[in-house]
């Protein structure tokens, strides 16, 4: 399995949400993706709504929680993960900078939302996505600017 997911992303230190760039997976026909957030909730598909009426509702559980499972054909899973600007990460408390998200990608013979399978991911198919802070100062600098007449 070949997985393309950045290891980290920088966010404004004041940001309470951030979108994860497109995720790509090559290899298996069917896929289970387990996403666990540390201090964050993950928003899939329609943003700011708990998606309870997806056309493939039985293939997603945990939208807008810190534990999201998505399963189905690899193309369907990627379509959902990358829809509407990608996964949105929302800080449960405070800001998103300094938080992390664990992704486990598991090849399955048929779609399943069984959470115990998440622990069976091969080490190379488990990734941690870190949200780092931008190196910007938030202090206000006051100075004089001479104006010419």
UniProtKB/TrEMBL annotation:
Name of the protein described by the UniProt record: Unannotated protein
Species whose genome carries this gene: freshwater metagenome
């Amino acid at each position: 399995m070949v997985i393309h997911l950045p290891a980290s992303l920088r966010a404004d230190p004041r940001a309470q949400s951030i979108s994860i760039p497109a995720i790509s997976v090559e290899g298996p026909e069917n896929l289970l993706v387990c996403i666990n957030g540390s201090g964050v909730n993950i928003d899939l598909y329609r943003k700011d709504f708990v998606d309870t009426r997806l056309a493939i509702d039985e293939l997603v559980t945990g939208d807008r929680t810190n534990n999201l499972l998505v399963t189905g054909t690899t193309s369907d899973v990627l379509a959902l993960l990358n829809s509407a600007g990608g996964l949105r990460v929302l800080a449960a408390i405070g800001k998103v900078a300094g938080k992390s998200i664990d992704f486990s990608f598991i090849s399955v013979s048929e779609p399943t939302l069984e959470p115990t399978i998440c622990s069976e991911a091969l080490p190379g198919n488990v990734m941690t996505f870190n949200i780092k802070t931008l190196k910007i100062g938030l202090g206000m600098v006051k100075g004089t600017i001479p104006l010419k007449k």
